[in-house]
Prior knowledge:
Blueprint: H1 2-17, H2 27-38, H3 43-47, E1 64-67, E2 76-81, E3 88-90, E4 103-105, E5 110-113, E6 127-129, E7 134-137, E8 151-153, E9 158-161, E10 175-177, E11 182-186, E12 200-202, E13 207-210, E14 225-227, E15 232-236, E16 249-251, E17 256-260, E18 280-282, H4 307-313, H5 317-347, E19 361-362, E20 368-369, H6 383-397, E21 402-405, H7 414-419, E22 421-428, E23 431-437, E24 443-448, H8 457-468, E25 478-484, E26 487-493, H9 500-505, H10 517-536, E27 552-554, E28 560-562, H11 567-574, H12 615-631, H13 650-659, H14 679-692, H15 703-711
Parallel strand pairs: 2-4, 3-5, 4-6, 5-7, 6-8, 7-9, 8-10, 9-11, 10-12, 11-13, 12-14, 13-15, 14-16, 15-17, 17-18
Antiparallel strand pairs: 1-2, 19-20, 21-25, 22-23, 23-24, 24-26, 25-26, 27-28
Helix pairs in contact: 6-8, 8-11, 10-12, 10-15, 12-14
Amino acid sequence: MKKLALFLLFFLFFLVRNPKPVLSLSPDGLSLLSLKSAVDQPAAQSVFADWNENDTTPCRWSGISCMNITGYPDPRVVGIAVSGKNLRGYIPSELGTLIYLRRLNLHNNNFYGSIPEQLFNATSLHSLFLYGNNLSGSLPPSICDLPRLQNLDLSNNSLSGSLPENLKNCKQLQRLILAQNKFSGEIPDGIWPELDNLFQLDLSSNEFNGSIPSNIGELKSLSGTLNLSYNHLSGKLPKSLGDLPVTVSFDLRNNNLSGEIPETGSFANQGPTAFLNNPLLCGFPLQKSCKNSNISPSGSQNSGPNSGESLKKGLSPGLIILISAADAAGVALIGLLIIYIYWKKKDSSNGCSCTGKGKFGHNDKGKLCSLYSCACINGFRSEDSELEDQEKGERSGKGEGELVAIDKGFSFELDELLRASAYVLGKSGLGIVYKVVLGNGVPVAVRRLGDGGEQRYKEFAAEVQAIGKVKHPNVVKLRAYYWAPDEKLLISDFISNGNLANAMRGRNGQPSPSLSWSTRLKIAKGAARGLAYLHECSPRKFVHGDIKPSNILLDNEFQPYISDFGLNRLINITGNNPSSSGGFIGGLPYKSIQTERTNNYRAPEARVPGNRPTQKWDVYSFGVVLLELLTGKSPELSPTTSTSTEIPDLVRWVRKGFEEENPLSDMVDPLLLQEVHAKKEVLAVFHVALACTEGDPEVRPRMKTVSENLERIGT
Length: 715
C-alpha cells in the first residue's frame, strides 16, 4: 500500500512538471525537425527558433505552409521555404516522408552532399528549388518518379554525371534549370519530345559535349531563352531549332559549333550574340561568310585542277569579244540607273520612302515599314537640306541665331514662336519645358536648353538632325530647333495626356482613373514598338538610356510615345551638366525625383560608374516598366515615405513570387483582378517582363523580339 501511494505521488508530480505529452508533435513536424538537426549551429538556433518540438503542429513555424487535406483531422505540411539564410548542412532523407509536400525552397544556402533519393518519395512535390548551394553527386534517376513535378531548379551547385534518360517521364515539367554545374556527356535526345509543357530550359555552364539534339526543336511550349551556352557542344546547328516558337531567344555562346547558321524560322530572329565564340560558325547574323572550296566562282562544280584551263581553251576569239561587249553594256546600264536614282532622290521633297509591311515604321500612306526592308525612313531630309541647315548654323554660330525647321510642315518664324502664349510645364536638369500655343491654335512643347558655347554647333546640329529623322507613331516627333550663342531651343509635338507615371500613380497626389488591362496592354505594345524602332531602324540605332514611366507620354487615346531620347548628349554638347533626368520632349510635367530616389528602373550594369549605355540597358528598364503595369507597384522608394505601392526591388519581389509559386492575385494590381478573362494574357506579359530583366545582359532579348512577343498576346 505504501509503495502504491509513493507511485501515485510520483505520477502526479510528473504530470505537474510535464502537462503536455512528449510525443504530441505531429509526424510532419517530427520530419521537419530532422532538417533543423541537419543544419550546423548556431545558424539553426536563429533560423529555426520557433521550431519547437513541444508544439502540437508545425503549421505556425516560420517558413512552413500547411493545408487541410480531406481525411485528415489536422492540416498537413505542403510547403517549406527556408531560402537565403546562409544555412550550412545536408538535406535529410526524412523530408521524403512528407507525402503532401508540394514546394521545397532551400535555395541560396550552403547545403552540401548529395540529393537523397528518399526525397522523391514525397510524390506530391511539384516545385524543387535547390539552386545556389554546394550540392554534389549525380541527379538521382528517381527524380522523375514525381508525377507532378513542374519546376526543377538545381543551378549553381556542383552536381555532375549525365542527365538521366527518364527525365522524359516528367511530363508535367515546365522549368528545367541545371545551369552552372558539372554535368557532362551528351544531351540525351529521347527526352525532349515528351516534355510538351516545358517552357524554360537552361543547361548552360556545364560540360556537355556532342551535338545539339535535333528534337529539342519539338519543345513547342518553350518561351524566353533556350540556353545551352558555355559547354563543349560541337557539330552543326540542327535546322529543327528553327521550328521552335519565334518568341524563343537562343544562347549558344562559347561552344564548338560549326557550319552555316540557318536563316529559317526562329533562326531569323536571333542576333549575333546568340552565336558568339563558336569560331567555326558562319553566316547571318555573324556577318561571316561561309566559304566552300568545292564550288567554282561560276557556281558550278570543279571537275579537276585543269578545268579552268580547258574552259579558257574552249572560248573562241569571237565569243570573247561578244562577252566583253556585253560587260561594257552592263556597266553603262548600271551607271545610267545610278544617275536616274540620284536625280529622283534630289527631286523628291520627302527624301526616301519605304513600303514594306512590318511593325515599327510608317510612311505617309499609312503603310507599315518592316525592320529590315527599309534602308531609310520616309520623311528623312536630303543631304542638301542638311547642308543648308549647316550653313544657317554657321550664321547662328556668329551670333545671328535662326530657327531651323526639321519638319517641312513647320513654317513658323522665331518671332511668332516667342510671341505665342506659353506656360511653364516643368524644370529639371534637362532644361525648362514650356507649352506654347501657336497662332493657328496648335500646341507645341519647347524645351529651353539654356546658353552654352558656340564652338560645337556643327556637332549639335548633326545630333538634332539625327533625332529629327526619327519618324514613328510611338516616338515624340522633333519639329524644329533654335541655336544661338546664348539660347538653345528644341520644338516638338505636345502630347496632351501626361505620362505613364501620372496615369499609374496619380497627378499631384490625386489618384488617377484606373487603367484597364486592355489599355495597359496597348501602352506596353506601343511603347515596345517605339523603343524597338529606335534600336533597329533609327539613323543611329539610338540607345535611350533612361526608360521609365515618366518618359512614356500618353495622348487622349492612351497611345504611348517614347520621349527624351538623345537629350543627354545634347546637354553635354551645349555645356550644361544635368543634375537629374526628369522632364520630356513634349507632354505634361513629371517632377524629377532622381536626386531623391534611386533609379530602380536601371539595369544592374548601368549602376556601375563608367559603363557606357547599351540597348540591353533599355530592355531591362522596359521590363521593369512592364512589371509596374502588371503589379501597380513602383520600384522607386522614397527615404521619407513608404506606401504599399512602393517596392524598392520590384524585379526581385516578382521573381521570388514566381519561385515560391504565390498566387497570381498576390502580384497583380488589385484593379485588374476583376478582369478574369485576361489571366492568360497577364501571365504571358509577366514572362516577357522577366526575360527582359535577366541579370545577364546577353541573355535578355532584343527589343525587336520583345515587341513581337507582346504583339502576339491578346490577338
